[in-house]
Model the fold of this input.
Amino acid sequence: MQIKIDHSLATQIVNTVKDVCGQDVNFIDQSGIIFASTNPERVGTFHEIGQKAATTGNTIEVSSDNSFYGSQKGINMPVYHNQSLLAVIGITGEPDTVRKYAHLAERITNLLIREQELNMISRNQNDKRQYIIDSLIHNQNLNMEYIQSLLTEFSVDVRTSKRLILLQINARYNMANFSLLEQKVTQMFSIFPLNLYAFHYPDEYLAVADSELFDRKSFILKQFAAEQQKLLKIAVGKSTSIYQLAESYSSAVTALKSITNPDKNFVMYDNLTLELLLSGSGKQEKEEFLSRTITNLTGEELKIITTYFDQDMSLHNTCEKLFLHKNTLQYKLNHIYRKTGLNPRRFKDAVLLYLAGKL
Done:
């Protein structure tokens, strides 16, 4: 890969070298023009010795200022990358003083270029993953020959069924700390392992797992969900072929919408029952239903009825969970009855309250 040095990278190189040697540093292109410099006044000017060093491929020292056009005393060393001349690095100062920094400058330059190369490779791989997932979940841009070649590149077996895994970041998460969360997510993908994944701005990760692998390794995902309970919701779509990934994605979205309990952040589409019916309701219908049932209840009262139903309407178990006296709980249930007109102890009314809580 022959990397292109832009002004930003060239500026990073000269600033980093100056931090080490304390002298002004110039980044000179093959035509002798100073492309970047720690001395802004020299950017864009011609450097005669820089051009000569680029032409001959030799390091040239200059012992006095103004001996050559646009050149000051110092050392000018050609820097190569992949056997091609990259630029000439000029360090201003007494040659005897700055000579010792010449090879260090070359090393710094190559390290920074290598870092950018790795970033480019990584970004290219991420772009490919993004393309595969976006194309398959939206059934768009389906260049099947190209997609199949990419699936082979990422070692995805098209003969086996897949599941789409959807991770959604909590809206209240401070995205200034995103790099730390990203590191945790990609590390978990690596342990699983999941080779095909992508980040969807602003708050979602999508990953594709082999169904058989998921059955064996789902405990990794569940453990990760438990560890990141306050940061993430995780939903797993139904098993489909890789070319029907749109169906698995749609089912994962449905599963994600079913997570309403703040103490629950992991769900599989396969385990949904009532939630499938509720997810099909429109927003207006949901709001109307809630207005007729639990809209007037406080947060504490909602927690009471949710816990009450989770404990199969057992007064004893609900009291233990909420640290309430039995008489206090009965009083609060009666108060809920008066506010809603629905009696939590009566089956038909309890069903309505339960559905409202799920919505």
Summary: The beta strands are 25-28, 34-37, 60-62, 74-81, 84-92, 162-169, 196-200, 204-210, 232-236, 266-268. The longest helix spans residues 102-138. The two ends are 54 Å apart (CA to CA). The longest strand covers residues 84-92.
